[in-house]
């Protein structure tokens, strides 16, 4: 294959969880532009449907919306069944859903909120990868699973401790599933740093710009700057890459 052909996803099906906004939306669009059919998944069906319609209009690729609360085990099971019922196959699974709520003090963090953070960031991706990855591994063509963690996994702060712990768990799942699902399925992880998405609207940007001066690129990324890494991991360009945690952090770590 030529270099370009290794990034061609024509004929493949991708499921992008947390795919309707931010980095997930950018990856959904990018995969479709590379030739994939896409299932756009998030908790809000209307947001998924809006993006799916735009993807089809812009790329001509089939895009299907699906609503799922990734923290609910039964909904994850239904998502896996729906993906195979709709497309008949899944070649790329991107576990991008996440949440990092702010709490006033660690002693005031409720059990309910703690459980929700772990459910969305760790339990759901585990269950979905178990289901979809196992089906991928049972086929000759295999597939690619991409987790999305965070630099908080390796350099945790003090304001989002459960989130950082969950993302460290995602890094661990990457290695475990790479061995469990190999050799037919490759499992890798994107570990992003600071990205300008809807979440960043709550940042103190003056403080961030000050801290960013210690990063190699001295800035945050835009959502589309994750797409190249996702395309690399999704297709044949990364045919000998598995169990890898790739930092996309502008030189933060």
From TrEMBL:
Superkingdom to which the source organism belongs: Bacteria
CDD domains: SDR_c
Keywords recorded for this protein, A-Z: Oxidoreductase
Residues passing through the membrane, by range: none
InterPro entries noted in UniProt: KR_dom, NAD(P)-bd_dom_sf, Sc_DH/Rdtase_CS, SDR_fam
Domain Ketoreductase per the UniProt entry, residue ranges: 12-199
Keyword Lyase tagged: no
Keyword Oxidoreductase annotated: yes
MF-aspect GO terms: oxidoreductase activity, acting on the CH-OH group of donors, NAD or NADP as acceptor
Family: Belongs to the short-chain dehydrogenases/reductases (SDR) family.
Protein name: SDR family oxidoreductase
Organism field: Solihabitans fulvus
Organism taxonomic ancestry: Bacteria, Bacillati, Actinomycetota, Actinomycetes, Pseudonocardiales
């Amino acid at each position: 294959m030529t270099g370009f052909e290794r990034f061609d996803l024509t004929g493949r099906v991708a499921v992008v969880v947390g795919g309707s906004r931010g980095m997930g939306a950018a990856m959904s669009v990018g995969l479709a532009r590379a030739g994939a059919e896409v299932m756009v998944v998030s908790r809000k069906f209307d947001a998924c449907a809006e993006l799916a319609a735009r993807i089809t209009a812009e790329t001509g690729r089939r895009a299907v919306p699906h609503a799922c609360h990734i923290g609910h085990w039964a909904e994850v099971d239904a998502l896996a069944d729906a993906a195979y019922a709709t497309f008949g196959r899944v070649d790329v699974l991107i576990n991008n859903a996440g949440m990092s709520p702010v709490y006033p003090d660690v002693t005031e963090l409720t059990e309910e909120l703690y459980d929700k953070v772990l459910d969305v960031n760790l339990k759901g991706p585990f269950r979905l990868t178990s289901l979809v990855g196992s089906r991928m591994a049972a086929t000759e063509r295999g597939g690619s699973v991409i987790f999305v963690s965070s630099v908080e996994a390796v350099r945790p702060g003090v304001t989002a401790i459960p989130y950082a712990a969950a993302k460290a768990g995602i890094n661990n799942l990457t290695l475990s599933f790479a061995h469990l699902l190999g050799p037919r399925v490759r499992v890798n992880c994107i570990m992003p740093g600071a990205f300008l998405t809807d979440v960043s609207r709550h940042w103190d940007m003056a403080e961030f710009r000050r801290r960013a001066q210690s990063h190699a690129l001295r800035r945050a990324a835009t959502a589309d700057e994750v797409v190249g890494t996702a395309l690399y991991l999704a297709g044949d360009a990364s045919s000998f890459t598995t169990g890898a945690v790739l930092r996309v952090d502008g030189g933060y770590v």
